[in-house]
Amino acid sequence: MKKLFLTVLVYCQLPIAYCQLSYWQQRVDYSIDVSLNDSSHTLDGFEKITYTNQSPDTLTYIWFHLWPNAYKNDRTAYSEQALRNGSTKFYFASRDQRGYINRLNFKVDGTPARTEDHPEHIDIIKLVLPDPLPPGRQVGITTPFHIKLPYNFSRGGHEGQSYQVTQWYPKPAVYDRNGWHAMPYLDQGEFYSEFGSFDVRITLPDTYTVAATGILQEGVEKGTKYEVRNTKEGKGKKAPVKNAPPRPPLKKNTPQVKKAPPAEPPPTTNYKPRTYKTVHFQQDSVHDFAWFADKDFIVNRDTCALPSGRVIDVATYYTPAQEKYWKNSLQFCKDAVRFYSSEVGEYPYSVLRAVQGPKSFGGGMEYPTITVISPIPSEKELDQVLAHEIGHNWFYGILGSNEREHPWMDEGLNSYYDHKYAAQKYGSRQQLNNMLLQTRVAENSDQPIEAPAPSLHTINYFLVTYHKTALWLQQLEQAAGPAAFRQAMQDYYTRWRFRHPQPEDFKTAFRPVLGTATDSLFHLQTEKGFGQPAHKGWSLVSPLAPSSLRKYGAQPPGNLLLVTPAPGYNAYDGLMLGPLVTNYGLPPSKLQFLALPLYGTHSKKWNGLGRVSYSVYPDNRFRLVELAVSGMKFSQKEGLDTNGKRSFESFYRLTPSLTFFFREDVQSSRNRSLELKTFFISENNFSNRVTRRSDNKSLFVDSMGWSRRYINQVSFTETNTRALYPYDYQLQAQQGEGWYRLNATAHYFFNYAGGGGLNLRLFAAHFGTLGSSRPLSTYLYRPKLLGVTGEEDYTYSNYFMGRTASFAYSGDDPVENKGIAARQIMLRDGAFKLRADQYEFLQGRSGNWVAALNLSTSLPKKLMPLPLKLFLDAGTYSEAWQPQDETGNSRFLYVAGLQVPLLKNLVNVYVPVLSSKLFRDNLSQLPEQRNWLRRWTFSLDIHRINHRFLLDRKSLWQ
Fold first, then answer.
1. Could you tell me the CA-to-CA distances from 896 to 516, 788, 871, 926 in Å, in that order?
2. Which 8-state DSSP code applies to residue 154?
3. CA gap 68, 911 in Å, rounded
4. d(CA 806, CA 813)
5. Are the C-beta atoms of residues 877 and 770 closer than 8 Å to each other?
6. Rounded distance, CA 127 to CA 134, Å?
7. Residue 718 main-chain phi, psi, to 5 deg
8. Which residue spans within 703-847 are E strands per DSSP?
9. What phi, psi does 361 have (nearest 5°)?
10. Which residue intervals of 443-526 are DSSP H helices?
11. Helix boundaries (H) for 249-328
12. Which one, 67, 613, 721, 914, has least CB within 10 Å?
């Protein structure tokens, strides 16, 4: 024991504040003068920083964040992350919409200091100190700066002349026991900054109302001078922050702050002088400063008594458009600050502000003593969002954890309390979030709680960082008991407020109340798969029984049985109705089934479809392996027998499949799959034994005949739904009796800066025969250039209104089978947006190979505000390169025209305007296609709707 004491004594010969056995943190104090030019959306400022080195190390440089440069070009970490998370908004931003910071001229204690660029990020620089900064000493750092504010893409900037000035000034990075934390600006992944004080003067036109971090010292807002209101400290004095780190005395030789002159637009002949004002804010023991300015702010203000009896000033700022939702915002703020003060620890500052930002702000964001929220659609939602953002004054503002590396210490801890706040006030629960989280867990696609923000999938950033952490804290509360948990949290708050707690510090705070369970409970942070499982059992849910829906919403079961009426339609069965019975739900069961029997009101027959699948989520190179069997039966043609009785052709399809989905990086937008599938198809068709009426116009059915066939299919598919230039391709081999096909299809989308883009499709196929098969027996399977009709959908993979509808020979049919249904095409093979049913030689069909190019482009919104596109199809086929025969077929064929996309491209209408001479000459002979307006077609792609379609709208890019 004596040896240990002597060792510690020798080790701590340095002043106790710098002993390596004790906690330390740096201090940064700011004095900033800044002016706003609302014509050019720029800031001109001058900053003085007093940097106190309270570490045990001698510093030779200081990393600085220049976060406005995150908006300088499309090669920054922010821009790349935005693309990865699915947004091209900033990537295609105009020059005027982007931002930057420049005109920096650093001096350290009055001596010019050089800077070095960060090797990777333009929004970080290294300030090289002219002289080393030893422990316990401080330096004065000054620099002017000029900022071009960006459009508000992420947390800050401007929308018109509404300003959200955040992450704006040159800021030293944190230096702690783990070293420097120089980090680029990101949208997903927040901040880590040093505590200190702020003294900020803002000069701007006097037509603006300003809300900012801290206490207003002087300034007139819309003609009314703000009262500097404090309760116990007296009017006009700042409220001291208890337990704040001591503020070191300033060195006498530190340079004085220079005021930035007001920025005015250049004079013109019609220019009228503008009047300016300067507002002055101060705040101690914070690590950031934000301010907001708008000409239309309505200001509500009141005082709020905290549970201890201390009184603070509360104000809300909002525009007239949101007044009906914000009229009670002061009360919401009071409720939130009292709740957190009671649960976690008393709010230490003397002011609290909440601001309504513009629509572009896209959510809420917290800053010390002030929060900003985009427009909200209801009072209840405003209350809950305000509570969450105000709560960040504790878990971000006062407890200054590293949000970038440990986002759960900020968002997760805060979510636990805002869930509790909402439950107490509204009885609201988190059932939907539980279902979504358990879906990620069931699909083996969640991530651990202790994952850095940039490494999280954008869905997991919310479901894991926010919700999963809140559930984990509930487990801690259950293990410790509510009273002990509350005391541990309050002890943690008291010990670490105005400091930088690490995950091990949070764990240490709870060890006394968790005891031996501490390690096992905290180990859950490093594991996947943790969550709140759904309760066991089955629940029958139906929209016909509203009480079952309410019960399901209150406590979703582990096994769902949904029974609901469902409609269907085709030209032969007519309107179909039947019950949909399925256990498809969230989270998905390993065994899933769907049954949809449908009764045709016209055919008087039962039809329908069904599917059964079993899924396995292995922890290897495959993320999912699915074994499935599906089937369907519908009518596809109508006829009359010799007695005038209706008869219907029908088909049956049974399809077993085995699909392997490859594992990708959790943040990857790429999906790859290998599918093995066999189609067993039976068709009940009209036979060749028919009787023709004496007028030779109507055909009567004497009998029906069965035919059966199979198709084996292997497909490899890769899809990348990235925001910029998404693509997919599929390689496919098919084989049936006497034939085989090799297909290759690819899509590539070229984004336009103004929205929309050009979709490029490439297709190639090779066809061959096997054995001694006859040409007619394999004719159906040969690839072609023109749009595929329902009769040519030989795997029955597309939905057709009238599968056999056609304008060819329609006068010989006993029941008319044409109309709108005869204009539907399937985008397969060459995918030409044209039908020529009467002329087989126009199809571009080949017994060898076919190749096609399809282009579809959106039009500029200024030129065409309607959702109208242009398309071009071009292609060729093997037979066109043979010696020309009497038909005069061209080697290359094309069709071009207008495309109208509907319902997110699920329905597309095509109007061919230009086409090859071969098409024009022959189609002009047909009355129903004599002019180009009457050659329109459409595609119906309902088969693309699945759970991924519903969850990921990016799948609709094509």
1. 73, 17, 5, 20
2. B
3. 48
4. 11
5. no
6. 16
7. -125, 130
8. 704-720, 727-736, 739-751, 757-769, 824-825
9. -65, -35
10. 458-460, 469-480, 482-496, 503-514, 518-523
11. 323-326
12. 914
Measured CA distances, 638 to 264, 684, 697 (Å) = 79, 12, 16
Determine how many CB atoms are found less than 10 A away from the CB of residue 536: 8
Omega within 30 of 0 (cis) for the link into 587: yes
DSSP 812: G
Looking at residue 10, its amino acid is V
pTM: 0.87
Cβ atoms of residues 711 and 795 within 8 Å: yes
Torsions phi, psi for 873 (to 5 deg): -115, 130
Alpha-carbon distance of 687 to 92, in angstroms, equals: 61
Residue 112, strand partner residues: 107
Cα–Cα distance, 549 to 602 (Å, whole number): 33
d(CA 551, CA 681): 42
Separation between Cα atoms, residue 874 and residue 3, nearest integer Å: 88
The full DSSP string for 890-930 is -SSEEEEEEEEEETTTTEEEEEEEEE-HHHHHHHTTSGGGS
Token digits of residue 539: 């629940």
User: How far apart are alpha carbons 26 and 905 in whole angstroms?
Assistant: 56
The maximal CA–CA distance of the chain, rounded, in angstroms, is: 123
876 CB neighbour count, 10 Å cutoff: 21
One-letter amino acid at 673 equals: S
Residue type, 142: T
Distance (Å, whole) CA 284 – CA 172: 17
Strands (E), 88-214: 100-102, 107-108, 111-112, 115-117, 124-133, 138-148, 157-159, 162-165, 171-172, 174-176, 179-181, 196-205, 209-212
3-class secondary structure for 217-240?
EECEECCEECCCCCCCCCCCCCCC
Distance CA 948, CA 955 (A): 8
Residue 396 DSSP symbol: I
Q: Which of 854, 848, 852, 845 is nearest to 784 (CA)?
A: 845
In residues, how long is the chain? 958
DSSP string, 560-589: EEEEEEEEEEETTTEEEEEEEEE---SSPP
Distance CA 572, CA 819 (A): 13
Rounded to an integer, what distance in angstroms lies between the CA atom of residue 897 and that of residue 517? 69
Query: Each residue of 89-114: pLDDT tens digit?
Result: 999 999 999 999 999 999 999 999 99
Closest CA to 228 of 220, 216, 244: 216
Angle ∠(501,371,188) on CA atoms, nearest 5: 60
SS3 annotation, 353-367: EEEECCHHHCCEEEE
Report helix angle 329-343 to 379-391, nearest 10: 40
391 closest CA partner among 431, 421, 363: 421
Find where tokens 């989280």 sit: 437
Q: What are phi and psi of 75, to 5 degrees?
A: -115, 15
- 746 pLDDT more than 60: yes
**Residue 305: HSE in the Cβ half-sphere, 13 Å Cα cutoff:** 3
Q: Which two tokens stand for residue 418?
A: 């805002």
Which string of b and e fits 803-816 if b means at least 16 CB within 10 Å?
Answer: bbbbbbebeebbbe
Residues 351-386: tens digit of each pLDDT: 999 999 998 877 889 999 999 999 999 999 999 999
Rounded to whole angstroms, the Cα distance separating 713 from 675 reads 8
Q: What is the C-alpha separation between 661 and 930, in angstroms, rounded?
A: 48
Q: What is the CA radius of gyration of the chain?
A: 35
Q: Which two tokens stand for residue 708?
A: 């059966």
Q: What is the structure's pLDDT at 755?
A: 87
Lookup: tokens for 526: 């490093």
**Nearest Cα residue to 395 out of 428, 375, 371, 429:** 371
